[in-house]
Every structure is written in C-alpha cells, then in structure tokens.
Design brief:
Distance between the termini: 11 Å
Helix content: 40-55%
Largest sheet: 5 strands, antiparallel
Strand order of the largest sheet: 2-3-1-4-5
Radius of gyration: 21 Å
Number of strands: 5
Number of helices: 8
Structural class: alpha+beta
Length: 187
C-alpha cells in the first residue's frame, strides 16, 4: 500500500502486552524489542514496531489513548509522552498528508491523460459541470488547472469509482495507469 509507514511505540512491557494482540487483530505484523533504560519510563521498556497504513491509524490511536506510552512515531511524525489530544492531531496530520499525496497523484494522471481542452470536455460529463467549469481558471497552466480541478472534485465528492470508470471509458488504452492511481486514491 502506498500510504504505509513504520509505527514505533515506546512503552512498558505491560503496555506492550496489552497493545500487541489488538494491533495484530488490525492485520498488522507486530514485532517487539525489549530495551533497557527507556527514557520517561521507570525500568526497562519495549518498542512495539509495525508497518501500518494511514487508514488504520485512527484505530491504532484509539488503542494508544487507553495506555501510557513514552513515544509514538509514525513515519516522520514523532510525539514524546503524547496526550490524547496530541494523538488526535497525529491522525489529522497523517490524513491531511495522505490527502495531499492522493490529490497530487490524481492531478499528475489527469495531466498525462488530457490537454486542458480535453479535460474541460471530460468535466462536461458531470451533472454539475457548469459550476465546476465556472470555478476553474481554464487559461492557467495545465498543471494548475488539473490540481485545482482535483481539489474541486474532491470537495464535491466526485472522486469515486464512477469517476475512474469514466476515465477508463475515455482513455481505454491507459487503463493500467488509471487503475494504479485508483488504488492509491480510493480507500
């Protein structure tokens, strides 16, 4: 999965025992490593490690909010002695970052599939095409138009299975590329 990151949780041995089974129940391959003198914890501790998709992170955070951990790291985001609120912010940051990557990926695909004029014709397939067309600066550079279009479509809830089926219909020779982006964009 494209949006997977390494998850590290520093905690006590007792907490690691409470976390391991529920994390495995989420389908994660969990490893633990005992460490000595873990900062913020009395005595020895454990590092719980897994690779997790961003879509699973909210359920992981729900688990983490029920225990005391000294450090949580997901990808390049790290929290020391996190509070419940900080864990919620972690989920939002990862969701926002994932959405940015997905938007960029779809924008890149549209830029490869269409000229600006072809993209405008494609948009006219939508029931709310006039509103979408009016919200975009079609004379802007192609990269700007595609990026803005993806954002408008996302806000309107238009990026769904039907959207990708329409892409496949107008660009049947590019189905493999369309399907590759679809797996990254749709949950």
């Amino acid at each position: 999965m494209a949006d997977e990151e390494r998850l590290l949780v520093h905690c006590s041995a007792e907490v690691s025992q409470r976390l391991t089974a529920p994390l495995r129940d989420l389908g994660l391959n969990v490893r633990t490593t005992k460490i000595h003198g873990l900062e913020g914890l009395a005595g020895d501790g454990v590092i719980v490690m897994a690779v997790a998709a961003a879509t699973v992170l909210p359920r992981i955070v729900d688990l983490l909010k029920t225990v005391l951990v000294s450090r949580v790291k997901y990808g390049n985001i790290e929290l020391i002695n996190p509070t419940r609120e900080q864990l919620e912010v972690l989920v939002k940051q990862v969701a926002d970052r994932t959405q940015v990557v997905r938007t960029a990926t779809l924008g890149d695909l549209l830029l490869q599939l269409f000229t600006v004029e072809e993209l405008r014709l494609f948009v006219r397939r939508f029931g709310d095409a006039e509103e979408i067309e009016a919200s975009l600066a079609w004379q802007a550079p192609a990269a700007t138009v595609t990026s803005d279009l993806v954002e408008v479509l996302r806000r309107r809830g238009r990026i769904d299975a039907g959207f990708f089926e329409s892409l496949r219909g107008v660009r049947p020779h590019r189905v493999a590329e369309i399907d590759a982006v679809r797996t990254q964009v749709l949950p």
